[in-house]
Amino acid sequence: MPRNTVGPRPDQSWAQDYYQPASPAGTWPAPTAAPPAAAPPTAAQPAGKTTAGHQTQRRTAKSRVDEWMDVDFKFGGSRIKRKAVALVLLGLPAPVPLFFMLPALLTLNSNTFAVSVDDTLGTGAEVCLFLCLLVTPMVTLTGQHWFVPLRRWYGIMMAASSIGDAVAASITDDFAGGVFGRVAGHVFELMGFFMVMLVIPIVCTSNPWAQRKLGKYWKRFQRLTYVVWGLLACHLMLLEGFGFESGNNGSGFAGDGDAVFHQRFYQYSACSLFLLTLRLPPVRRWIADRQKEGRMWLVWVTVAPIFAVFVLGFVFILNEQIFKGIDSFTNNPSNE
Amino acid sequence: MTTDAYPGAGRPGITAGGLIITAVSCLSTLLLIAAFVYAVGIGQRHTTALAAADCEPNLSPSGQQCTTQPMMAAEYKAMLVPSSQQLTTDAAAYAANEGDHLAVAEAALTAEVAAERALGRSLAAFPFPPAIAPIAKGLIQANQARAALTAEQARSSSLTKLRSLNHQVQLADAAVASEMKLVAAAVDAPLPGA
After folding, report:
1. Please, is B43 exposed, middle or buried when counting C-beta atoms within 10 Å of its C-beta (0-12, 13-18, 19+)?
2. Does ipTM top 0.90?
3. Phi, psi of B3 (to 5 degrees)
């Protein structure tokens, strides 16, 4: 299975090997990566598809950080890789949206579910999707691979949050039309419904067995994640439109004065600009060329504003997640 | 930034990747500048919006800077409903046993005292805005008086003595209900069960 879809330019083989786009699709990680903490450094590499020479090239091209992350340290009588600790710490926030809804689930608080499950789990799914999609651009930029297993983890957590959101909405929403009306009674809901319907097969095939069975089609199938990404744009667009109200969007109250930053579609667009640009094959070639020339500073200078826009959008999504999540956790759901 | 040496061509060229990333980078820079300019005006918009939304300060459990009248009313109601239900249950248990089971009736009254004191603590902790605080203080005092009377009733040594305090407790209940109506009207929240 080819590991690069950047393009046919023959002069770039070194750069392609060096950068090792973790997955050409940039979708969820290769199923050979088990839990993040236990994944081997070459987890994203499909078994039996690489030559010894290629592996040698990879070893020589391994970044210093990757090597540092591969080093063991002693902890409580056993040896643990630094990478394992880093992956666990970075992966810990992913289930937090589900954790926020746990008290409401344990107490069967239908009010909390009806009022804020879509904000808590829906936003959580969005956060996990963006983190999942962030892995490939970060590999492209840094040349490091130790965090690649996080892609699968975030993808699974995104699926869990979105499915939980849909199930809760199907039970507790007050739209007419029965279960189907509650999950697909409005066009924006229909988009969300399609997303969940796509996420289910994607997450079900995100394992080694499915990869073996699907063969060359597995990667194409996993690329459906991009459709989910696009449907999320439609979902948010239909939810809040292109404009913004006088502050009644997102987690902020009407009086917070920064309605634009709370507009969900703007947040989505700000994040997607970085994620999409760094996926474009010409851009990846350009970055590879600059690195080959030893002019990474140029890449950083150019990418910095795009990344800053991503951070700006992502911070406000997290803001929404934290405030709505805490309100849900305390069973004081906010319907702002 | 966008020049690139194609192998074999021997001359610098402009790549599509360079053009794209430069354009997106410039767009991002403009967006950041616009965001900064917008952020500078947040404070003024916030103040204007607070006034327009008729907000009360710092009552939200999530620490937001603004709580509206409906939000405060909902929080007040959420605090009142469980206490009210508990008191109703205890009062029913007392009414069922005041005639023939002294121990059970006293137990019901003891539970009622606990519920009344818990309600008093909740009311004292509730962040009533300054305009409502004096009215709320009246409710807290009325509730304290009722709790003291109920406690005295719970200590009765006979059924006759127990029932003799019923009228005073009913008056205290009526005083609390009256104060509750005033507070509820002030926070614009209907009384539980109303």
Report:
1. exposed
2. no
3. -75, 150
Do the Cβ atoms of B20 and A334 come within 8 Å? no
Contact between A22 and A148 (Cβ < 8 Å): yes
Question: Is-above-0.90 flag for pTM?
Answer: no
Mean pLDDT per segment of 10 residues, for chain A of length 336 residues?
38 32 41 39 39 44 81 84 91 93 87 83 95 94 91 94 91 75 82 93 92 91 94 89 58 61 91 96 93 90 96 94 89 70
Phi, psi (5° rounding) for residue B12? -70, 150
- List helix spans (H) across B53-188: 69-97, 102-125, 133-154, 159-164, 166-187
First-to-last alpha carbon distance for chain B, in angstroms, is 72
- Looking at this protein, which amino acid is placed at residue A119? D
Q: What is the torsional sign of CA A233, A238, A244, A246?
A: negative
- Helix B16-40 with A281-292: angle, nearest 10 deg: 100
**Chain B residues with a Cβ under 8 Å from any Cβ in chain A:** 1, 4, 7, 15-18, 20-22, 24-29, 31-32, 35, 38-39, 41-50, 52-53, 55, 60-62, 64-66, 68, 75, 78
